[in-house]
Structure prediction request, 327 residues.
Amino acid sequence: MKMIMAIVQDKDSNKVSSQLAKAQVQATRFNSAGSFLRSGNTTFMIGIEDERVEEVIEIIHQASRSRKQFMTPPLNMDSIMDSGSSFPIEVEVGGGTVFVLPIDSFRHF
Amino acid sequence: MKMIMAIVQDKDSNKVSSQLAKAQVQATRFNSAGSFLRSGNTTFMIGIEDERVEEVIEIIHQASRSRKQFMTPPLNMDSIMDSGSSFPIEVEVGGGTVFVLPIDSFRHF
Amino acid sequence: MKMIMAIVQDKDSNKVSSQLAKAQVQATRFNSAGSFLRSGNTTFMIGIEDERVEEVIEIIHQASRSRKQFMTPPLNMDSIMDSGSSFPIEVEVGGGTVFVLPIDSFRHF
Ligand code: NI
Ligand code: NI
Ligand code: NI
Prediction:
């Protein structure tokens, strides 16, 4: 038995939840935040049999992998004055961090 | 020294807190949620001497054990039309999950 | 690699965050609460190389150490009737608890 602690971006958390549910993996969700930018993220705590650790990490990886996205930056007064328009830019979103911890014992009642 | 992570239903969390306090066991509480039904629950994080692990698990067990309860389901329009009344049904509430993790070291300042 | 779980008072949490950031230490923050007085605190979860464990604990220690502070207790009706004034008293604030846990593996994607 291992404990997996996984931190993913809020925008990926529902996908992570539903993919874990589809694989019948019980998880506990916590609202959390990064300490640098204080932006919200979601932490999942999962107790799982040793044989399924890699499978669970791969589920989280697929549901939260970092990828490029086009995003239109919000207009501000300067740019309106300047050009009157805003162009989509490519940004990187997603990504996650996973820790696997040993467990001494587990009880469900 | 061990770390106990215990997830219990919100309705049992105050009883768990007060029983831990009565036993002089320090705990940290987190609002959390199940990932299937997204229903709220409470996670307790407890650092405890090896000799007291079983005692703490038993406290949490007694305060959150699953049990049967009678509950009156909420009326909906169909059932009002149908029978004009709602009967109590037996449901299972409570239950918890406990993980015991090894700790390398501990510091209090 | 180790996992550090650190619980500090809310009033020290921004200092802890910024000192960790200054040392380039990634951390995840959680709102939490003590189970005795239910007062809010903040829990930091940090994955860190073995060689930096002591450094990180010392950062948290310096940013949250318990110290004496003078505080003016809030006036209540009795004391107004009684003396008409309120005197600063010395109270202890701060302090933290740190757990260091072993990690089997770590992944970032
Ligand atoms: Ni039982
Ligand atoms: Ni000190
Ligand atoms: Ni990848």
Remarks:
- The pocket of nickel (II) ion (ligand 3) is lined by residues A 61, 65; C 109 (CB under 6 Å).
- Chain A touches chain B through 22 residues (CB under 8 Å).
